[in-house]
């Protein structure tokens, strides 16, 4: 665990507590690739304003689950709902417009583009102008919209402390900075739910602490609900409100972080400890 355990010392919004209506609902999701079952009848709820961690050993189906939520995969069966609306068959771009933001385990930045342009690229789902309205929507209206988007992006850049590299090519940055840029790009979508796939993988302790604080601040200051895959149990214990555990594509535990991490089945399946 981290040397400091106060990352999540302030409780989450009241809505994140027990009894709150779910913001994101996963119901009976199964995913099969030919004869391989990646997910088997997995259900869970993510409540408004909480940090919800998805954990499990390699190959447990964690990233497959995020892909089903974000739209990269269509589940074989089951459903996904956001704010009571079923989004199971929506295109990924439509889910982004609905409020699903996403980062990836392997960085997906445009290495040949600047930090600023990478983040601006995420604003395309917010643009009012398109090829149909382009002939009508121009001049002052277009300039005002562009200014608004640039102001939003600059505020995000300041939030993540990357102003000093705003014009640098993303591909030239250190790994830790590129991870921050990817978080910034996801935030530029103005998500209701932010899906983070191992946001601290490959980082040293100092970099992990920085990213963990950003995750907590996104919830605390901006009210963003976060569903996160993370292997570092110190991070998971420090920042999570609740946890779901997957093993071989099945859910084996769900609940408060303190309860789940002490569950003998979780220790055996994931942490590699002998059950008492």
Automatic annotation (TrEMBL):
What would be an example GO MF term here? ATP binding
Q: From what superkingdom does this record's organism come? A: Bacteria
UniProt keyword Zinc-finger present? no
Q: Where is the ABC transporter domain?
A: 24-273
Q: Which Gene3D superfamilies match?
A: P-loop containing nucleotide triphosphate hydrolases (3.40.50.300)
Tell me yes or no: is ATP-binding among this UniProt entry's keywords.
yes
Short name of one Pfam family for this protein?
BCA_ABC_TP_C
- Any signal peptide, and if so, which residues? none
Keywords annotated in UniProt: ATP-binding, Cell membrane, Membrane, Nucleotide-binding, Transport
UniProt xrefs under PANTHER family: ABC TRANSPORTER ATP-BINDING PROTEIN (PTHR45772:SF1), CONSERVED COMPONENT OF ABC TRANSPORTER FOR NATURAL AMINO ACIDS-RELATED (PTHR45772)
Return the protein name: ABC transporter ATP-binding protein
């Amino acid at each position: 665990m981290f040397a400091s355990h106060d990352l999540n010392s302030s409780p989450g919004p009241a809505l994140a507590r027990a009894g709150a209506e779910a913001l994101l609902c996963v119901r009976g999701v199964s995913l099969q690739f030919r004869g391989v079952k990646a997910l088997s009848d997995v259900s869970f709820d993510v409540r408004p304003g909480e940090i919800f961690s998805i954990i499990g050993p390699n190959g447990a189906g964690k990233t497959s689950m995020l892909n089903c939520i974000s739209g990269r995969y269509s589940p074989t069966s089951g459903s996904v709902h956001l704010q009571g609306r079923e989004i199971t068959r929506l295109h990924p771009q439509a889910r982004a417009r609905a409020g699903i933001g996403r980062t990836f385990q392997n960085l997906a930045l445009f290495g040949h583009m600047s930090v600023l342009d990478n983040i601006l690229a995420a604003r395309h789902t917010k643009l009012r102008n398109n090829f149909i309205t382009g002939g009508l929507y121009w001049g002052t209206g277009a300039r005002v919209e562009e200014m608004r988007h640039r102001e939003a992006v600059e505020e995000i850049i300041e939030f993540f402390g990357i102003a000093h590299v705003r014009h640098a090519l993303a591909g030239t940055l250190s790994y830790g900075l590129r991870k921050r840029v990817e978080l910034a790009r996801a935030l530029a979508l103005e998500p209701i739910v932010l899906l983070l796939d191992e946001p601290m993988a490959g980082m040293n302790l100092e970099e992990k602490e920085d990213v963990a604080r950003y995750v907590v601040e996104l919830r605390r200051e901006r009210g963003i609900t976060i569903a996160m895959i993370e292997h570092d149990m110190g991070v998971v214990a420090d920042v999570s409100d609740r946890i779901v555990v997957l093993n071989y594509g099945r859910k084996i535990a769900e609940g408060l972080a303190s309860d789940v991490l002490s569950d003998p089945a979780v220790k055996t399946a994931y942490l590699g400890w002998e059950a008492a």
